[in-house]
Amino acid sequence: MPATLIEVSRAGALHERVLAVASFEGIDAEAVRSGVASGRIVIPVSRVSRRDRLCGVGAGLSVKINSNIGSSADLESVETEVEKLRTAVRFGADTVMDLSTGPAWREILKRISSESPVPLGTVPLYQVFGEALDAGRETADVEPEEMLGAVEEHCRAGVDFLTLHCGVTRRAIDLLTAQGRKLGIVSRGGALMAGWMRSRGEENPLYERFDDLIEILRAYDVTFSLGDGLRPGCLADASDRAQFEELITLGELQQRAVTAGVQVMIEGPGHVPIDQIEQNIRMQKRLCHDAPFYVLGPLVTDIAPGYDHITSAIGGAMAAWFGADFLCYVTPAEHIRLPDVDDVRTGTVSARIAAHAADVARGLRGARDRDDRMAEARHDFDWRRQFDLALDPERACEERRKAMPADEEVCSMCGRLCAIRSSRRALEEPAAD
Question: Is 266 within 8 Å of 226 (Cβ atoms)?
Fold first, then answer.
């Protein structure tokens, strides 16, 4: 079997993926190689996929963002999902995840995998349990071999990283039950697995047969994204015993996978109050050996349906400032409905803002250059350059056109009282005698 990226890096060789990431980040290739070898950096691209845009996630690299797309049985359209993919990539997604759960999921995954220029992730459990229900079976009827078979099917389809809920153990569920929660389990994969375990009185097969999963992913050089199946779904449930029990288990599994030559990311919460974000990130880094941390949000309040792209961006910027490496976007449709194409655009840009703000705060080399160029363009009233530098140039241009001033050099908010123009006169023009 060919060596995996970790094994090549551990041997001291500079893989072409390592060189590409180092070039993109503007850092020494040896730093990237060392990070991959130790498990502190992942470059999620499988043996069978072809991606034009690689991305590295982890220590010393810029913060990356993921955009979720995917249909459900209620709203299913292959072409819509392809449009969502193109929109996510166009507005800055470093990766995408196809979370389709309807009957046409294979067709959608095939199209997304063939057309995505960026790494692709999926959640195989959705399909294996969904197909069981479609066939009139109970989820408890699904056998462990079917779960492993679904994992391999996704690897063959060209998926680059897989969310697998390996840390939802019987002990973690017992702790959750004993402590109690307002919202129980809000992860789809986590809830399905917990239900399977309860109905059958058995341990999670993804945990018990983790070595089998390692062999499958190693064969395709696919990256584990160890899912946070017990993440908190509201502020009241944040940082409880079940959440951290799962995290401890994920840290143990991460070491086993990396030792075996398979890349690993760790997924994290969820809904977390602002004052608990730093603690969550620090604990993950310590318990999971500095593995790349992939966070959903976190959302910092529960009361903003329709605006959760904002609650997520606030939490995401803080999480990345404290050390998270990878932000999963949240759209305005979160908690309400399936996102549409415009939601994908809004969510992607919101997450991009959070990631960039964290890169600036971290002092990442070159991170503030674009901000400095924007300041210069505003000083010069160079509107075209301002739009070109914006994260969403079209939206910026649209907003300006809504209310053009008589004097087109300034904007319609200040008009003739423009602060920048007045400042230039006060500070840059010669003073009168």
Answer: yes
Confidence of residue 428 (pLDDT cuts 50, 70, 90): confident
Query: Residue 11: inside a domain, yes or no?
Result: no
Instruction: Output the domain CATH number for residue 124.
Output: 3.20.20.540
Q: Is the pLDDT of residue 19 over 90?
A: yes
Residue 210, domain member (yes or no) = yes
Work out how many domains the chain is built from and give that number: 2
Tokens for 297, please give them.
């949000």
pTM over 0.90: yes
CA 127/CA 135 separation, integer angstroms: 12
pLDDT digits (tens, 9 = 90+) for 99-146: 999 999 999 999 999 999 999 999 999 999 999 999 999 999 999 999
Yes or no: say if 313 and 252 are a contact pair by the CB < 8 Å rule: no
What is the rounded distance in angstroms from the CA atom of residue 197 to the CA atom of residue 165? 13
Residues 344 and 417 in one domain: no
What whole-number distance in Å separates Cα of residue 291 and Cα of residue 389? 33
Its domain, for residue 373, covers: 369-427
Phi/psi zone of residue 70: left (φ > 0), alpha (ψ -120 to 50 degrees), beta?
left
Cβ partners under 8 Å of residue 281, min gap 6: 268, 293, 319, 322, 323, 324
236-265, pLDDT tens digit by residue? 999 999 999 999 999 999 999 999 999 999
Q: Cβ(150)–Cβ(127) under 8 Å?
A: yes
105 token code pair: 């999921």
